[in-house]
Amino acid sequence: MIVQKFGGVAMKDRDSRRLCIAHIKEGLEVHQNVIVVVSAIGRAPDPYSTDCLLKLTDAFSFSKSASDLAVSCGELIASAILSAELEEAGIPNRVLHGIQAGIWTSGDFGDGTISDVDPAMIIDSLKETGCVIIPGFQGINEFGQVMTIGRGGSDLTAIALGSAMRASHVEFFKDVPGIMSADPNQTKSAKKLEQMTIRQLLPLLDTDRPVIQKRAALYAMKKAIPLYVRGIASSEKGTWITP
Ligand SMILES: Nc1ncnc2c1ncn2[C@@H]1O[C@H](COP(=O)(O)OP(=O)(O)O)[C@@H](O)[C@H]1O
Ligand SMILES: N[C@@H](CC(=O)OP(=O)(O)O)C(=O)O
């Protein structure tokens, strides 16, 4: 069993989602069970991106819980779209969201953290279908309210699920071929790294646009989960990150 995480860039349009679906198909052939974690589609100005949902009304500054509820819909919409497109491709699947996914959060709205994962419903669903889709970036707090877990939080969702489900590893599909020695969009001479430890990865995450959310990487280190970062558009080998 593996977890595959597709971020906003991988989910951005139908062509890119066809590549996601090919990777999910391959994951199912090799591992039989795949938990797919998705982020909201695209970046600003894409209408259902997190950036745009956050700006739906400036009254969100009066209610962080209302803001979280609206923003969480980006990942839910992405899940529903991928679910339909997987069915179209002949891949049965099920979306679990909100309380069904068993992801419990605590802390502040907009910047919560995952406090516990109860995978009972995921385990049940995997008996019916090998492919379960879970919207990233969110969970439910002790009062039953939807809470988001910080920008880039779908990475944390994927890793927390990987740990709770004892996945062999968690795969991330990016617009870069793997972890590079520096952000290739800033440093043209950056080279792809084939293998590294999570500890070696951490300094590369101290940037405005980290390739993986730092909180998620720390969680992976604590739970000793192997990560594999690869390019969405190529079959080239990515980067293995060992705990
Ligand atoms: N060391 C690095 N190696 C590769 N990409 C990096 C690195 N540091 C920053 N990045 C940036 O991370 C981006 C991919 O992450 P991101 O867009 O957040 O993915 P996702 O949508 O899957 O969360 C790349 O486009 C790149 O600009
Ligand atoms: N959609 C959320 C969560 C996330 O992790 O997104 P992405 O995987 O596209 O970085 C955000 O933009 O912060």
UniProtKB/TrEMBL annotation:
It catalyses: L-aspartate + ATP = 4-phospho-L-aspartate + ADP. Keywords: ATP-binding, Kinase, Nucleotide-binding, Transferase. The keyword Iron-sulfur does not apply. It holds the Pfam family AA_kinase. GO terms for molecular function: kinase activity. It comes from Sporosarcina quadrami. PANTHER family: ASPARTATE KINASE, ASPARTOKINASE. Its EC number is 2.7.2.4. This is aspartate kinase. The keyword Kinase applies. Belongs to the aspartokinase family. InterPro entries: AceGlu_kinase-like_sf (IPR036393), Asp/Glu/Uridylate_kinase (IPR001048). Residues 1-230 form the Aspartate/glutamate/uridylate kinase domain. It is an enzyme of class 2 (transferase).
